[in-house]
Amino acid sequence: MTAILFAIWGLAAAAADPAPAAATGDAAREARALLRRGEARAAVDRLKAARRADPADREIAILLGAAYLADGNPSWAVRVLDARVAAAPEDCEARAWLARAWLGLGSAEAAARALGEGCADGPWRARFQALAGIAAWAARRDDLARELLAAARQSPEAWPEDRRAIFAFREVLDPERPPPVAWRADAESGWTSDARVGSPVTLEAVDEPASPRLAVAGWMEARGTGRVAPMVELWPRATLFTAEQARRYGGLDLQGRAGARLGPALVALRGGEFLNLEPAAPRPWHQSLRLEGEWEPAPGWLAFAGGGRRLVVEAARSRWELDGGAGWQGAVGPATLLVAGSARLRRANNPEWDDGGGTLTATLRLRRGGWQLWPALAASLDRYPGWTPEPRTDAVLRPGLTAWAPPLGATRAGLALTWTREWSGDPLYDLSVVEVDLRLRSTGVADPGLPRRTRLPEVLPLDWGIRRDPLASGDERVQDLVRQEEQVQGGCGCGG
């Protein structure tokens, strides 16, 4: 039970550094230093000797119980801490550690007894309610666990490790519920054999403008709570080509939407603008306003649709657009697979730019240790019935591979290689492009509704027995897969 409890519970942030608050002697100071270095066995030996010298010392007893837990011996932690609680039932810190030790043994009932009526003062309130919630969850009383989680979140203050545990507890109880705030930031430096791919700017009949490329991009979503939950989502991207013949294809793409989630459904108004940063004449290239909807019929599944008006600086290309599709994200053996399919219909001011088509795209996330490998493939087909002198058909194939190194905190580095091949009825759009990029990615999640960090002196940080990959949240979703292909469509002659 212990292994299952804390394996599932492994969705939390790393436990805080156990810095001493008020050491009461050389033994306590040395033991804290040993625990910081992960030398739990040595800390146990040092504290056992100190306890023989002074069996009544409060700090030594709590430290010894914590050291036993860190050494993987919850049974002896219970013995030491139970004796301390029997001698001083009002000792909130000892009772919290005793409950934690009982949870380590898989005894939710004993953990609840150790907590008793709780400790209502200051940050102890949040700690006791969170521990009681874990005990209720371990006893398969999910409704009570949710009530206790809500009470812990409403506590006025909490210690840092307890705030992280409350956040993780929410994800354990509701794994399909996204965090209140999630974000991702990317920086890229690389090279492309043709800067025209991915840019909405009208292609020119020139030699392929190869160029080094710099780019920064971000994504952030904030959402409220309740049956009708407001949400805001932003995803800007800036691209700069350093070669003179390619600079006109760079720009600043500003995208965002605001709306509300109603259970598994979302309705939002999306706006966007692409600013062409050509040095000779920087100007807005296109602006758009769309109504979008999403529906998640089951975990991992997503259906989406949207439509609206796009105004382009070249008035002939301004258009009405309608699109929709579906996607799925889930485990395939040890890997994660994301797949999506979409269809589109566009009606422009000039019928030459009328377009109908579809895209299929997929990416597989393979993980080994801290390393990740993401092979991807996208294919699209578009038909321009009004193209002159004759209707035009474009087919695009886009395989790619991204390798990510193990993370350093919430940031990791990667190398991406992509090949885009477009076959077109118009030679101007018949392209073969290679792109190579070095990438840095940082991700994170947050919960503004957590208790504030307490200003009280630090106690021995409670080891919740929880660990978390900081990149597990804020990572790419089916929606991001679709948007990446939208960017490619912008430079394939599809109108941006």
Explain what the structure shows.
By secondary structure, the protein is an alpha+beta fold. The protein folds into 2 domains: 2-173, Alpha Horseshoe (Serine Threonine Protein Phosphatase 5, Tetratricopeptide repeat), CATH 1.25.40.10; 181-490, Porin (Beta Barrel). The chain contains 11 helices and 17 strands. The chain has helices at residues 2-8, 26-36, 40-53, 58-70, 74-87, 92-104, 108-115, 124-138, 142-153, 160-173, 478-490, and strands at residues 157-158, 181-192, 211-223, 228-234, 237-241, 251-262, 265-276, 283-295, 301-312, 319-332, 335-348, 355-368, 371-384, 392-404, 411-424, 431-446, 452-453. A hairpin with a 7-residue loop joins strand 13 (371-384) and strand 14 (392-404). Helix 6 packs antiparallel against helix 7 (108-115) and helix 8 runs parallel beside helix 10 (160-173). The radius of gyration is 28 Å and the shape is elongated.
| End-to-end distance | 54 Å
Structural class: alpha+beta
Supply the CATH superfamily name of the largest domain. Answer: monomeric porin ompg
Content of β-strand? 35-45%
How does the major sheet shape up?
15 strands, antiparallel
The low-pLDDT segments are 1-24, 469-473, 490-496
Number of strands: 17
Radius of gyration: 28 Å
Q: Please trace the helix and strand order, writing H or E for each element.
A: HHHHHHHHHEHEEEEEEEEEEEEEEEEH
CATH architecture of the largest domain: Beta Barrel
